[in-house]
Amino acid sequence: MRRILTSALTVLVATAVPAAANAQLPQVPQLPASSSSDIQGEINHRIADARAQVEDFSSKAFPQRAPKQKVPAPAPEKKPEPRNDGGVDCANCVAITYDDGPGSETNRLLDKFKAKNAHASFMVLAPNADQHPELLKRMKAEGHTIGNHTKSHRQLNTLSYEQVSQEIDAGNAAISKATGQGTRWVRPPYGATNATVDQATRDKGVSQALWDVDTVDWKDRNSDHVCSAAVQGAHAGSIVLMHDIHPTTVDAADCVIDGLRAKGLEPVSLDRLLRTPVPGKRYYARG
Ligand SMILES: [Zn+2]
């Protein structure tokens, strides 16, 4: 303490009397030991006094922040799980649908959707479903929708009610056999439908999944084009048509998923996009 006071006084004197810098500095008075501890005591006393005043003021002005009152720490906010189903109202949802499989490319496509935690719908042909029940099981287990693309891929609008019924029944039977569960969706081949198909699907309690975005991927076997067609054509509520039997279409899947997400859209299953479809109704998109 004494050394500090001595140094401080030296500095003060040197600053105040620069002209006298070379002159003999006045003798710094030696502070008695008792005097130093008195100053320290006074300082401590004033600090304690000031602290008491601040605490008193604080407890009156902010009673909830009174220092003695223990406020329980708020429970840490639980972070919501990241959603990949378009959120509660699915406002930004899009359904990507793949027809004519399952086939040799389908497993690779499922891997891609799994890696990106996205979902799609697979409109299967009965003979292919019978051939690859394990793929249908995987689709179901991973949250995709399975739809009925009939037995023999005929134009349903050229058939009788009975024939349409048989086509639908065969598809449903194949799906049920593989997964233990039926489907709510029929996709008429070529999108060919009419009043007879409306009636037959209504009677069987299934809805018609058509589309508003056709990527024409069966003709345009170019992944970049397929991706552009899907991403540029899609808007919230769209149903996008593709085919999982073409390697180029499967190659485009990452680009499609990423591209839709970059537009603020989320690829979901048809069952997610349309939770309560009306039997017999033709759905080209949601809304
Ligand atoms: Zn087809």
UniProtKB/TrEMBL annotation:
**All residue ranges annotated as the NodB homology domain in the record:** 92-268
Q: Superkingdom of the source? A: Bacteria
Keywords attached to this Swiss-Prot or TrEMBL record, sorted alphabetically, are: Hydrolase, Metal-binding, Signal
Instruction: Give yes or no: UniProt keyword Signal.
Output: yes
Q: Where is the composition biased (Low complexity)?
A: 63-72
Q: Which PROSITE patterns match?
A: NODB (PS51677)
- What does the entry give for GO biological process? carbohydrate metabolic process
Q: What is the protein name for this chain?
A: Polysaccharide deacetylase family protein
